[in-house]
Structures are given as structure tokens and as C-alpha cells.
Amino acid sequence: MKFLYAHWRVAYIDAPKDPASYNPFLEILNDPDEKKSLLLLRTPLSFVILNKYPYNAGHLLVLPRREIQELQQLTDEERMDFFQTVIRAETILRKALNPDGINIGINLGIAAGAGIPKHLHCHLVPRWTGDTNFMPIIADTKTLPMALEHLWENLRKFV
Question: So what's the pLDDT on residue 29?
Fold first, then answer.
């Protein structure tokens, strides 16, 4: 079995935080400067942000506005809005970045990889054929082709 390690995320992983109380998502939702907070889209019950610590360029997070931890806590209306927003985020990524594929996933709980388990969120990670390379392993460097603010501007055109 081979492993590919994401060393560039260690700054996020090592950052001091209490998963039981830490929730930057509510701060983002209340920040009036959407570009600075990387808030891409608001719907009545959900919102979309660029991941500040992306696995790949264009890595988005879709979140319900209400702070909940599990899918079954979504009301019927929230569930509809949340998954429609996931589809809308997928469409934005396809139009703006033309990826060859997109990983979509939800990590429930710390053991499953949820860095902020207090607030349910869905990851959308655009992928391109051959987008893995030696840089993270050999040079401890993740190559992202554009700054988050520039990427935000590009994606925002398709909202």
C-alpha cells in the first residue's frame, strides 16, 4: 500500500483549538467582507466558502447556516437547501475550473477526519488527471496555481 501525505496541512492540524468549542464558520458567516472571509455564496439556509487550507485549488466547503454536527439534525428544508447548494457548488467548480473530476465528502466526527466537528460541512475538491506530484513529499510544498483571493474572484463570476 502506498500513502500520499499532505504535509502542508500541518499548520492547520497543529493550530491550538478545542474541537468542542472552536467554530470559525460562524465568524465567517457574520463577516461583512466576503472576499476576506472567502465566503462565496449564501442561500437561505446554507453557505459556501473556499477552504482556507485546501487539498487542491478550488476546494470548497458547503455548510448549513445552523450549527449542527450530524446529517439527521438537518430539518427537511435545511436538507433540501444543503444538498441543492452542494450541487450548485459543483456546478460553479465545473464552469469556473473545468476539473476532470470532483471529490465530494462529509466527515462526521473527529475520528472520521472532521477538523471542526461542531459544524457539519461538505467538502468539494476539484481534481485533474495527474494533479498529484512529488512536491509535497520531496519539497514539503503544495503547489496551488493561484492565490485564494484571486480564486474567489474567479469562482464568484459563476455564482
Answer: 87
